[in-house]
Amino acid sequence: MSAFDRLAQPIRKWIRGRGWREMRDIQVRATEAILGSEADVIVAASTAGGKTESAFLPLLSDVIDRPSDAGGFDLLYIGPLKALITDQAERLTSICEWTDLPVTPWHGDVPQGVKGRAIKAPGGVLLITPESLEALFVRRGAEIARLFAETRAVVLDEMHTMLGSERGVQVQSLLTRIELARGHRLRRVGLSATLGDMDLARAWLHPDDPGAVLLLVAQGGGSELRLQVKGFVAGKEGAEATERRVAADLFTRLRGTSNLVFAGSRGNVETFADHLRQLCETQALPQEFFPHHASLSREHRSFLETRLKKGSLPTTAVCTSTLELGIDIGDVTCVAQVGAPFSVAALRQRMGRSGRRAGAPAILRQYAIESAVEAAATLPDRLRLGLVRAIAMIDLLLKDHFEPPATGALHLSTLVHQILSVIAERGGTSAARLHHVLCRAGPFRAVDAALFGEVLRALGRPETALIEQAADGLLLLGREGEKIVEHHSFYAVFQTPKEYRLFEGGHELGTLPVEQVLAPGMLLLFSGRRWRIMEVDDRDKVILLTPSLGGKAPVFGSAPGIIHDMVVARMFALLEGQDVPIYLDETAADLLAEARAAFRHMELDRRPIIERGPGAWTLATRAGTALTATLALALQARGFTVAAHDGFLEADSETRDIRSVLEEIRAAQGEPEVPAEATLAFEKFHPNLTRNLLLYDALSARLKFGEVPALCSGLLSSSEDMSSSNLQDYS
DNA sequence: GACCTGCTGCGGTTTG
To answer: Which of A76, A309, A546, A577 could staple A154 via S-S, CB 3.0–4.6 A?
Structure first.
C-alpha cells in the first residue's frame, strides 16, 4: 500500500484539493514511520520542506481511523513562539477541513472563551506554548489526566531551540508529568531544520532508549551557497564614517530586493537602519530598509513581517536574532551579517532564510570592520579577531560542523521552578515523591537524593520561604512561594529585565531596559527614527518622545557571548595557516595577512605565554569562552587582573609571576577557585539558592575547572613545537 | 563582547 493510500480518507481529500501531484519524499517516509510503528520520530527538514505536514498527515490519519472513546485532546503540539502557533493552527485547520477534529491554538493572546470551550470539550489538536502548558499544571493540575488521557502523540516544533536550554528541560519535565498523571507514555515527534548532533537529539526526545528513535532526514535541498567576506578598516575618519561606508555598500547591493541584515545587537540595528533610511531619503527613494528587534512594538514588527511575507515591495529588514527562526517570512535574496556571529549554529539558521526558491542560490555577505592598527593597538585589533572569527565560522559552516548543545548541566534554577510547580499542581507533596517525579522519571537525573535535599533545605530557609514542611512531612508552598506561583510571571523559566515603555503622542514605539540613564533632552535613535526625550516617568516606567533631527542608538544592556572551543580551534588554525579563502575581498585578505604577521611577530606560533611588559602577560589558551573564563577566575582569585578574548587571556600582576601561579593552579587539580566578588546567579530562580548550590550549578554548566590543570600544563610546556595541541597533559 | 522566547483569573463596567 502506498503512503498516500495509508492516509485517512478526509486527509487524502485535502491533499487532492491542494492539487499536489505527489507527496514529498520526507512526507512518504514520515507516514510510513508514524503509521507503521509506535516509535518516537525526528523529522529533520529545511523550513520550507513540509515538516508540519510530514508529522500531521499521518498523525491525524491515525486519530481519524482509530478514534478513541475517551475525551481529551487527541494530539498535542508544543511550539516556542506565539506567532508560530497561530500560523500552524491555521494550516492544521485547513488540513482538518474534511474532518470534525477541532484545532485549538492556546497562548497568552488567545481569548479566554476559546480556552474555556477547549477545557469543557477537549479534542482534536491542542497547540500550546511551554508557558501556557505550565499554567495548566499550576491552575488546573487536577484536570491534566483527563485532558491528556488518550493523547496519541506530542509534536515538538523547532526542537533545536529546546536542546541544552532551560526551556527545553521545562518541556521534558512537563511531558513526564503528563505521563505520570495519565499512567502511560506519550509518543514524541520532534521537528527541526538544524539539529547538529543527532544522538543528542535522540537522547533528548527519549532519554531511556535513544536508539529506538527513528530519524528521518530530508534529502538534498542544499542549494548553492555564494559567499563574500568584505573587510573595512576604520581609519582616522572614525567609527561613524566607517559605518557609513558599510551602510553605503549595503545600500548599493541590497536596494531593490528583499534581504535580511543581521547587525549583531539592537544598538547596531538602530544605527544601520538610520544610515540606510538616510540614504533612501537623500536619493528621494521610497523607504525599503526597516529595523526589527525585540524591543520594538508588536505593531511595527508585524508591519515589517507582513511586508516581507507578501513580497510585493522590495524590503530589507535590519535585524537581530528575532528573524532567525519562527514564522515563514518568505524567501529573501541575500543574508548580510555585520560583524562575526556568536555561533555557527545561528549562522546556519540565518542562511536557511535565503536561497529557498528552487534554483536560487543562498547568498551570504559578511562584513568585517577592523580598527586601524597603531603602536598601542589592543590584542584583538592586532590579531583581527573579529575578521578571523567570521572566517572561522564560515569555514565551519561550509564543512557542516556546528556547535553541539551543552549537556550535563544540573539546571538547578529550572529544578526550583518545577518543585514549586509540582507542589502547586498537587496542593502539596512529599520530598520522596518530588524527587521521583523530577529527578528519576523527569529530566533532572544528575541531581541525586543528597543534592535534592540540599536544594529543598535552601528553599525552606526562613529568609527564602519558597516552601515549608507541614507536621506530617508534606511539602507546601511557603509565604514567598505562594506569591511567586500566584503571579503570571511564574510560568516562564527564563528571566526578563524591567523596561521603560516609549511613547510618541499616545503611540507606543517599544521598550528600553531600565538600567540605563535616560533624561529629558537626550537624543535617541529608535524604531528607525530620531527622537528627543521629553519626559521620563520613573514611577510608571514611561518615556515620552518627540521627533528630532539628531540622535544615537541607545544601550540595550549586555550579556557576554559564549564562543565554542571548536570555533577558537579553527581561528588558531587560520592564524597559523597560509591559505587565503577565495571568498575574501582584497581588504579582508590584507587584514588576514596582517593578523598572521602579528601572530608570528608576537611569537604566539611558538610560545603559549608571552611577556608584554613587566608583570604583564598574554596567554594563548586556544580554548573557547567557558574554559578561558574559568582560568581567568582562578587567576583573579590569586590577585591577577585579567581580560579575556577569543582563545587568549591577558593577565597582569605587580607581585606574582605567571608561571609560578599557573603551577599552583595546576597543583590544585581542578579544585574550583572563584573570587568572592564573582556572581554565580544567572538564571531566574538562582537568587533563592545558596552559594554552594550555585557553584555546583555553574560547575555543571559554565565553568570547567576539571579541564584547567591540563590547560595549565599546556601553557607551561616549554616545548617549542606547538603543532600538537597544548590542551594535552604533558606531565 | 549578544540575542531571543512567555503570561491567569477575577471583578467591575458597559452594552444589547
So the answer is: A76
Cα dist from A225 to A255, A355, A370, A598, A628, whole Å: 21, 8, 25, 32, 33
Residue A706 in any domain: the answer is no
Measure A162 CA to B5 C1' (Å). Answer: 11
Q: Is A597 helix (H, G, I), strand (E, B) or coil?
A: helix
Q: Answer with the one of A475, A491, A507 that is the final residue of a domain.
A: A491
As a rounded value in angstroms, the CA-to-C1' distance for A684 and B5 is 14
A233 with A103, same domain?
no
* Residue among A190, A193, A194 at smallest CA distance from A203: A190
Neighbours of A292 (CB within 10 A): 26
A509 in helix, strand or coil?
Answer: strand
C-alpha span between A632 and A640 (Å, rounded): 9
CATH number of the domain where residue A318 is located = 3.40.50.300
- Tell me which residues from 491 to 550 on chain A have a beta carbon below 7 angstroms from nucleic acid strand B: 491-492, 494-496
Joined grid coordinates for residue A375: 603602536
pLDDT tops 70 at residue A453:
yes
**Same-domain pairing of A188 and A283:** no
Question: Above 80 in pLDDT, residue A467?
Answer: yes
Q: What are the pLDDT digits (tens) for A697-724?
A: 999 988 999 999 999 999 998 544 444 4
Does some domain include residue A286? yes
* Res. A728 pLDDT band, cuts 50 70 90: very low
Q: Which of residues 250-279 of A touch strand B (CB under 7 A)?
A: 264-267
A610 touches strand B (CB under 7 A): no
A251 with A282, same domain? yes
What is the mean predicted confidence (pLDDT) over A163-176?
Answer: 96
The structural domain count of chain A equals 3
Strands A507-513 vs A499-504: parallel, antiparallel or unpaired: antiparallel
Let me know if residue A377 belongs to a domain.
no
Q: What is the sign of the dihedral through the CA atoms of A143, A144, A145 and A148? A: positive
State the pLDDT confidence band at A555, using cuts at 50, 70 and 90. confident
Q: How far apart (Å, rounded) are the C-alpha atoms in residues A13 and A5?
A: 11
Residues in chain A: 731
Q: Which nucleotide across the nucleic acid strands is nearest to A265, CA versus C1'? A: B2
Look up the pTM and report it: 0.92
- Domain range for residue A291? 225-372
Q: Do residue A288 and residue A199 come from a single domain?
A: no
Q: Each residue of A350-396: pLDDT tens digit? A: 988 887 777 788 899 999 999 988 767 899 999 999 999 999 999 99
Distance A483 CA to B6 C1' (A): 19
Nearest residue by alpha-carbon distance to C1' of B8: A488
Q: How do residues A220-253 score in pLDDT, each as one tens digit? A: 656 788 999 999 998 777 888 999 999 999 999 9
Of all nucleotides, the one whose C1′ comes closest to residue A79's CA is: B5
Round to a whole number and report the distance in Å from the CA of A340 to the C1' of B2.
Answer: 11
